[in-house]
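Inputs:
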Amino acid sequence: MKHPGMINKVYNISDEIFNWSEENFKKAAVIIKKYPDSRQQSAVIPLLDLAQRQNSGWLSKTAIEKVAENLSMSYIRVLEVATFYSMFNLEPVGEHFVQICRTTPCWLRGSDKLVEVAKEVSNTKLGETSNDKKFTIVEVECLGACCNAPMVQINDDYYEDLDEDNFKKILTDLKQSKKITKGSQIGRQTSHPQREKNA
Amino acid sequence: MPTITIDNKKVEFENGMTVMQACELAGAEIPRFCYHEKLSIAGNCRMCLVEMEKGPPKPIASCAMPAGDGMVIKTDSEMVKKARKGVMEFLLINHPLDCPICDQGGECDLQDQALHYGFDKSRYEENKRAVKNKHMGPLVSTIMTRCIHCTRCVRFSTEVAGVDDLGLLGRGENAEITTYLEKTIDSELSGNVIDLCPVGALTSKPYAFKSRPWELSKTETHDVLDGIGSSIRVDTKGKQVLRVLPRINEDTNEEWINDKTRFAIDGLSRQRLDKIYIRENNQLNVSDWDNALDKIKNEINKRGKDKTITLSGKFTDAETIIATKLFSAGLGSDLYDCRFDNAQIVHSEDESYKFNSSIKEVENADAILLVGSNPRWEASVLNARIRKAFIDNNCKVGLIGPDLDLNYSYSKISNSLGGLNDILDNKSEFSKDLFNAKNPIIIVGTSAINTSQGSSILKTCAEIAKKLSNFSGSFNPLNVLNQDISRVGSLELGFVNKVFDGDFSKKLKEQIYKNKPVVFLLGLDEIDPKSLEESFVVYCGHHGDINAQHADIILPTPAYTEKSSTFMNIEGRVIQTSRCHNPLGDSKEEWKIFRVLSDLLSCGLDFNNLNDVRRKLVNENKNFLALLEVTNSSKLSFSSKEKIKDENISYNIKNFYMNDSISRSSETMAKCTNEILNKAKAS
């Protein structure tokens, strides 16, 4: 399965050196402070997450080294964590990181069709980034929103109760940088039964 | 004591033991891959599963389960057998069937255990995974498809070697062992991961495809390349040493050896002196024993018997020392010495040159003062003990000397020797830690002692040692860390002359200039050949290194793997090496050479075999009587408070990998110098 979060390598594609933004530097200090003295290494996951957010969705070599230096850890220890969790991307990703759930409930409710839609709109293959750098399309295992299957996660938000039409609209809107609504696409309240609402 | 029942057998165990250790007490063998006594417990291979009665309805991992009072364990029930078979089948799913071309073949844990616990056929029909090989430097070769992810290598490098270089990336099927960006492992203990690897994933690069274990003759012996005298096993094929492996010796090297001990052996078959050479018309020509010894006899008679000088080198064994000492006495000369590096000692006080507190005691220390010593290079396995103390006892380390790349944190006291004054006067910050500690020790390196004020430094260190809390009738916290295996034995046998006290090279020059005598160099390459001009130099050694080129006569002698000889390690522990194969070429043991010379010059040596020589040795010094034992001296008779001049120290080992005539001849060590040291310097 091709997935930028499941590779065991660090890349430094540009010569750009990762440095904390001023705001994130303060945030990092707050995160590190949460942990007792000499246990600062516990902050490695939140710090990697912060670095990934700042670095447009992926961790470069210098970002990993920066986190390691902040926490006085060796590079390899941080890289171990970054490669273990598939949520840390080690390759550049598009502006919208589209994770399509393919586990049984979503699959039964038509996630295969969503994959086709995503490929078509973004004009790219699974696990790859579109040429306009707008989308990265990946398949993932269960994201835990099965009752509103099929569902997709785009960046931090869930989009549920999808079908070919509304998913196509979401992606086209994103492509044109329009605003989209997150959550259920058929107006369902959280995970309430659909029938109740109709009645 | 709590008891545990293992296979219907009741055994008592100590609290804190694991089920696996208790099983071993009961004599039940538990297969394992990831568990290793000297490393932390990982519990990830699952090979050690056993059944626990009244426990969970599934087998438990015995390596990670603490043994409890009244537990009932079965190690050969149906459940256990089935579990082991299952684990083995999973391990073999992705393991390639390349044993015929694998260097581990014949000594592979996986191979052996698959035979005992595995299925006879595979049920797996899907594709096996393949993993790219990783670069780990000039010593460790990797075939990562064979890796079973036991993480022993990762735990070793992190915990024992103290370099966070290896890691396990990814997870599940994608897991891979690697170094960060495939950098070289920057540790002088890196070769040990080869022994630790239970499969053929990490193997020895210099030994690749050289031999099969069953073709080698294995000899248990000791290492001589540093002062520790680590217990090793030497594997030979014909007259070639193919590899060196560590043996377990809890008193000295635990289970590890350094990379020089392990890999410098290719130096044993390069640059060797295997013929007798005589200088004629300023050229060294091949000759024979009769001619050479005759010429030496004439020269000694011509230049004066009682002026003859004998100097020992880095690898000179006690048998040679005693033979040459008696030989010199027969000539009427007492001009012999072993302190070629200008070592300062206090005469007739053996605690002034020994590692008095014993190597094993280092791991109990809670404060260590290093004076002009780089233990990482001078005695790598000892350094692993210091690191152990640092981790287990939160040991505080203070350093007097220039900055070092040690694998534990230390507080720097001063760059120069002046810091010693502050420690003694309790003025430095570290002195509080040192004097308040329960088990402090002082390690004085030869870089600090081999200076003009060396004896004052020794005396001041002794004064500090006397003030320490644990200095008592039974314990001596003052340790001198010698770098050569020959040194303590030579000093113990009194192979010194006060004529050379103070400034060795100057005094030697004076002696040679005055008398123009015959000089015997016993494998000594560490002195300036210019100082030997006008003397008649007889070089007895095994490598054509620096001084052999300037010799008038070269007498070939066997290297440490080719003869049985006795040494004293830094603690004064008597070790005896064994002959692993026959000597190369025409070489003869030194004691034989001097025995013949004695007849020619009528010096009256009367030993005729090695046992006779050893009897002389024990007569000379009773400490040579007991093998592998050490008698610690707890007295400190030479202390005094002296004002130390604030001189700079420079460490006397410039290149760990090429530090003696054997390792200087080794190609592998030259590669290490290039790839590890020079790279570290460049970055």
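Chain B touches chain A at residues 164-171, 174, 176, 178-181 (CB under 8 Å). Flag for discussion at group meeting.
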